[in-house]
Amino acid sequence: MKYLIKLIVAAALSFLSLSAQAQPANPYELPDPLRMEDGRTVRNKRQWINERRPELMEMFRSQMFGREPGPNAAPDMHFTVLEESHDAFGGLATRKQVKISFDKDENYYLVLLMYIPNNRKGPVPAFLGANFKGNHATTTDPAVLLPTPEKLATFAPGYKMEDRNANGHRWEYEYILKHGYAVATFCYNDVDPDFHDGFHNGIHQLIDGDKPRNGESWGSISAWAWGLSRCLDYLETVKEINAKKVAVIGHSRLGKTSLWAGATDQRFALVISNDSGCSGAAIARRKFGETVERICSSFPHWFCTNYTSYGGREEKMPWDQHELIAMIAPRPVYVASASEDSWADPVGEYYSLVGAASVYKLFGYDGITDREVPGIEQPVVVGRMGHHIRKGEHNVRLYDWEQYITFSDRFLK
């Protein structure tokens, strides 16, 4: 089956009010997610699950994110409850702070902050995502623990303690809780500090030590995704949470992470990408906004080194990002963009959903197939796919959470 997407982007760019100085998108031919490497066409979901999906996973592992370790790579992992209270947000929720240690001596660990609604009947669904600035920076709650000086010392050189609630607008805890969901988060630096020191820090150092790396060795995005899966391991032990109804969510580089976590760990029931852009939801072949060459130059530690070979030659990639979306099928997926975020290519993010729709159809679900990009703040939900373009900048706002809650209500309740 010939699968072509040839785009005329000028109208779409005007439609989204993207900056006039932005470069035009590159015309491209999108790989067919249902065309196998030997030329055969996938005809049914069994063939997708057993043959085509493993082919794509191999491409992403060997050529982009690297080969993540298995779930038992840290055999001494254990959980310690650091603090628990039933009167968070004036009695709205139970707050729980848990240390997830990856080694016996607890030198490598993350701290998971959880809020669980008190007004519940039975286990509740949950949102799980990493944060950028520390758990304390996601809320005004004075009881949320600060990173220890020892933990801060492992972060990027020059990293300074963020103020409490510095990023609180991205975590609408009370809104989420009032809609019947638990929410859990940890600082991504806890798992793998976000700077390039040759992978001698964080979970890479614990699992790999000084073992030589190669072109397929896992990068930071794989490490953060691995950390999300270990948090899900813990949520499976919490009786107040329905661990079979956990949505993984992320913004920007952590949106790339949530997509990869959703692909590698099929326990996640729903996947949300917020402004994930290049190497996340956006079509790489468009070469619009941030490109593979630019992202690998700025953040080489996010990926395996094989990925750098596609800089400036995205058309040579044997995959594209719509196939990352496709590997989430048949689970629900939501991709969100922002109108002023041209660097993340909102048009390219939308077209990844269009490109993955044929895989959802294999499972009997409709997908987004309309080639006309939706208007700003005109959410589109078709089958198990959702999308919106929020007015404004590269960020997470209440409007985004409103759409995520509405979408998740369809599948997690």
Helix and strand content put the structural class at alpha/beta
- Give the proportion of residues in helices: 25-40%
Total tally of structural domains = 1
The CATH class is identified as Alpha Beta
H and E string = HHEEEEHHEHHHEHEHHEHEEH
| First-last Cα distance | 37 Å
Number of helices: 12
Low-confidence stretches: 1-22
Number of strand elements = 10
Structural description of this entry:
The chain contains twelve helices and ten strands. With 413 residues, it is α/β, with parallel strands linked by helices. It has a single domain (9-412), classed as Alpha/Beta hydrolase fold, catalytic domain (Rossmann fold), CATH 3.40.50. Residues 1-22 have low confidence and may be disordered. Strand 1 and strand 2 (93-101) form a beta hairpin. It is globular. The chain has a ten-stranded mixed beta sheet, sandwiched between helices. It has helices at residues 9-15, 45-65, 149-152, 173-178, 188-191, 202-208, 220-235, 253-264, 292-298, 322-326, 346-362, 398-412, and strands at residues 78-88, 93-101, 109-117, 124-131, 182-187, 241-251, 270-274, 333-338, 380-382, 385-390.
